[in-house]
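Example 3.2
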Amino acid sequence: LAGSVRTLHLAGKYSPAQKDFSPEDLGRLVTVTASSLTKLRIGWGLDEQYKKRFWESLRDSVAPAGRLRSLVVEGCFAVASESDVEPLGQHLAGGLEELVLVTKYWDPDSSKGGQSGLPRFPESICALTELRRLNLEGHFRITAIPAKISSLKRLETIQLRYCRLFSLPKELGELSGLTKLDLADNMNLGYAPQDEAFPAELGKLKSL
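Structure, written as tokens:
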């Protein structure tokens, strides 16, 4: 597999195969294919051991290789820490075009909802200047988008559903290529003063 795999897609839920596929197996598979991977998608609802091993492999092998163009992480894997996401900005700034970190535990009324996902919008993402699609759905603790978002000039799609945004930065208006801005179920935007929740600069988004 080394040097030949371009796309690795592992998905499924509560598969019996997990009994024979350990966290170490997952780590080895990701590590062995790291040098050639351009697209990596993980869609497993697995436990903390698998999550930890996956992020270690991504940090130590895939990100430094610098070839990744698309990273899609769904389920409990997306309940990552800022230290997990940090290597993306360090190593993939010149290439990553799609970043999807979706956690399914978005319900603020559930036992996990209020604590799920990233604690804030990682500023390291703002170093991914080739990014075209960004999806951080279900990270209920994200309450703000950093002003540095303006550095992502190639962004075409932003999805921040089921977060807890209180306002939008005026710098969003500088993303002239943005065609989709999905902020569904950010209920706090409805309580903030209108000029803070939706600053006038958003009117410059002519492609939206």
